[in-house]
Amino acid sequence: MASMKLGSKPELFSRDGQTWICTTGLQSDVVVEVGDMSFRLHKFPLLSRSQILEKMIRDICGKDGTSCVLQLHDIPGGIRSFELVVKFCYGVKLEVTALNVVSLRCAAEHLQMTEDYGEGNLISQTENFLVEVLQSWKDTIKALETCEDLLPHAEELHVVSRCIESLAMKVCADPYLFDRSTSGLSSMRNSNGGILWNGISTGAKPRSVSEDWWYKDVSFLSLNMYKRLILAMESRCMKPEMIVGSLVFNTKRYLPGLSRHSSFRKNTGQGVHVASVSVASVTEQRALIEVIVDLLPKKKGVASTKFLLGLLRTAMILHMNPSCRENLEKRVAEQLDKAALEDILIPNLGYSVETLYDIDCVQRILDHFMSADQSAVGSSPCIVDEGPLIESPSLTPMTSVAQLMDGYLAEVAPDINLKFQKFQSLAAMVPDYARPLDDGIYRAIDIYLKAHPWLTDSEKEQLCQLMNCEKLSLEACTHAAQNERLPLRVIVQVLFFEQLRLRTSIASWFFVSDNIDDSQAPHGNLVLSKDDDPAPVEPTKENLSVGIDNMKLRVSDLEEECLSMRQEIEKLGKKNSWNIFSRKCGLKQKSRCNAKAADDGQNHKKQ
Predict the structure, then answer these.
(1) What distances in angstroms separate CA 73 from CA 61, 78, 155, one per listed residue?
(2) What angle do CA 30, 32, 37 make, to 5 degrees?
(3) What is d(CA 514, CA 535) in angstroms, rounded to the nearest whole number?
(4) Which tens digits make up the pLDDT trace of 7-20?
(5) CA–CA separation, 195 and 200 (whole Å)
(6) First and final C-alpha spacing in the chain
(7) I need a labelling partner for 530 at 20 to 30 A (CA). Which of 26, 95, 110, 607 fits?
(8) What predicted TM-score, i.e. pTM, was given to this entire model?
């Protein structure tokens, strides 16, 4: 740390309780009171250096030469600053450093210790040294930290703004171009990349410096100074990613509950040690979150969704004001497709806790996302062309969000306090086109039905309307066909669509088989030479035949199940409903005959 030596006389003062006494042997003729401390001094050393002290001595003490008492309770820096001022006036040795230069500069200005009261007075001395301090990163940090207790004097002298601008310039510039160390070794480089010290090349190569080298140093600043520094960096076109990096570092340092899996213990390879984490009070944590949210860059995606959700979760724990929470919810919604399931499982910490997780918060986030997505679609109308339909750019994020919400619904479904209307409304917010497969929503519905067996048949059917049976995978169809928790009507739909899918597959197999037969038939007068061998087609035809036979058996089984279902429904007096469903879906009783005719045609073809 840089320092400056002033004065040459040895120590002349001693302390007796709350009193400082000058030991020169001369009787004191003035007493200066600063706070609860008294300084027994002499008039001449003081009035010869300070315009304010000269005026006070003249006005209060008079010309009779008797002792008088002066009060300087408002001097910047208090007792410690005035003690150094007194030593300077008496010519006693003192050391000026980055930790006391600002208080001395403010005190000198307050006492008007200008060049009119002696050459090399305290104002000029401290000002010159302050310029030197601003050349060093760490000294500037120390000086700025001391400014917090010297407001508004440091502001009026522009010391705060000068320190902040100096730091912002150093962060935004090449870190090799200034001194970041406390040793005074300049990092200026020559043309060959070697380090220069006092203009002489040392031949040493500078160590690589990561972009986050300044994160830790600025995290010790007060919130006010830290905010001003970040804004100054932003005005100098600092990359948003770097600003977010500092915000994340600062937040994790003072908000230990930011991460769901945060731990105060870490393994360093030489055993487990306790990590040093500064835990702030609730009031300080609230103030920090407000500052962090205000400083977050507006650019989408520059802050990770995990970090934003961690801030939101902490804001809810601390019961932050609604505007702060709403701001975070909108930011999360902008990049909800990048969120992980575990991060949106926000505990319900409201005053009236009903469910384990905060469903309302996730629903608000999803609502913001849907509104933004609809706005994006509206501003980019779909272009219809003769070619294939081009996928909307918003479809991929929507698909990711749909998958995320299906997983979320499955996680919250076992909560017996989760009301039917809330589960239904949250699941219905995701549009049908966003799900390529409906296995996820089916799983969530099945879990909810299992945890809420008291639901009425009407409510069960309303839930099942949230999924599309046509978009269930074969595994999901197999499970749903045997799921006793599903309404009977839904099981019939699942069986029908599985049957329809198998029929389509059989048709495609027939199409492939016909193409293979056509490709093996002779064309014209094509003559093979004796060296040419025909392609082995018989195994392929056998495989096709086996696959088709298996599908026919599955179709036959499905038809039997559908027939059995129909008979059960008729017994329950729902014959009209079955007829309507049969006409709607195109289910025919002649399917067995069609299958038999297909078998006969295939056998005839083989013969």
Answers:
(1) 18, 7, 20
(2) 135
(3) 17
(4) 888 888 888 889 99
(5) 8
(6) 101
(7) 607
(8) 0.73
